[in-house]
Amino acid sequence: MGFVNSKKYDGVQLYHKANKDISYYIRYKDENNKLVRVKIGDKSKGITEPFCYQKRNEIINRIRLGDNSHIVVKRKKVVTLNDIAKIYFRQREAYAKDNVKSYQKYSTKLKIKFGDEDIDKITSDKILDYQIELRKSGLAPATINYTIGFLGTLFGIAIEEGLYDKSNPLKSKKIKRLKVDNQRERYLTTKEIKKLYEKLDDIHLKLFVDLSLTTGGRLETILNIKVKDVNIDNKIITLKDLKSDSTYRGFISNDLAKYLKQYMQNLSINTFLVGGKDTKMPSRTISRKIKKIMDELFNQGLSSRDTKNRAVIHTLRHTFASHLAINGTPIFTIQKLMNHRDINMTLRYAKLAPDSGRDFVEKLYH
């Protein structure tokens, strides 16, 4: 997405939208020599570059003749960041995406700071000051990057909707992403996995952990598994990756297959495995229970911001990949089982492989 100047018609700009449509804008200087950008319309509604060029020439000619009747006030009222956020969340609902988490993050930070402010007055300097303010508050760099990045997304929506006629203030060179060193290295050892199972006194919690450690699926991937996704005979399970909007195959062990065969006997094909109901178990419910156990067993004495070493629900996915590597699974096979699009995401597990070089170093100088 973004603005591209027309190659053929001066003063006409094309904005490529996420849905593959194109919004057309014209740029000109008004009677006060101030640069103005006005949205003419979308390609899907019949707007073309020549039409925009014609409208621009008409406006410029009227300005030269002193005729101000062309001026259309695009914004008759103040447009606040809250107004843009409403558009964003409404669009997300149209694509059947979960808004709860994003809305909570917006409400606790951006809404409090800028929600009622005119977006024309939210400058790059104000955003930089806010970034510094967040750093001083002790927030993790990744959280700050998400918050500032989300603000940039909202400005992108405002531009796309013709409610903001300047460049996205987040593109200013003075605003830079903070460096983040939070690559999770924590995985559970076989002894820790045993400790975890000893604490699981709920069959659905245990099933969640079983599926996580057997397939490496993310939280929502596991919670979205239905009876119809399980092929007991071939020990194959179809997984939905909501992050990349794709499906992929996982495999289940003999013991888990035996358990699922009995567990699914009286369930309909559309029943969700975890929870055993026709409605998906809320992610917050399972997250809260797992967090309580992880904190008690593995996170004593660790700061809540120590993302590298704390055991969290995502640690189960990391444990799956780590033990695959430890057991000598080829890196490309791990990539496939994790449904990683980029091999670089998988390569961090290579250091755990038995042929990583450790044995060779041990034999040095002997």
Task: Summarize the structure in short.
With 366 residues, this protein is α+β, with helices and mostly antiparallel strands.
Helix/strand/pairing category: alpha+beta
Strand content: 5-15%
Sheet of most strands: 4 strands, antiparallel
Mean pLDDT: 87
Count the beta strands: 7
CATH topology of the largest domain: hpI Integrase, Chain A
CATH superfamily label of the largest domain: Intergrase catalytic core
Overall domain count: 3
Question: Can you tell me about this structure?
Answer:
With 366 residues, the protein is of the alpha+beta class. It has three domains: 2-64, Double Stranded RNA Binding Domain, CATH 3.30.160; 81-171; 190-358, hpI Integrase, Chain A, CATH 1.10.443. It has helices spanning 49-64, 81-94, 100-108, 110-114, 124-136, 141-160, 190-199, 203-215, 219-223, 254-263, 283-298, 315-326, 331-338, 343-346, 358-362, and strands at residues 2-5, 12-16, 22-29, 35-42, 230-231, 236-241, 246-251. A four-stranded antiparallel beta sheet has the order 1-2-3-4, with helices on one face. Strands 5-6-7 form a three-stranded antiparallel beta sheet. A hairpin with a 5-residue loop joins strand 3 (22-29) and strand 4 (35-42). Residues 72-76 have low confidence and may be disordered.
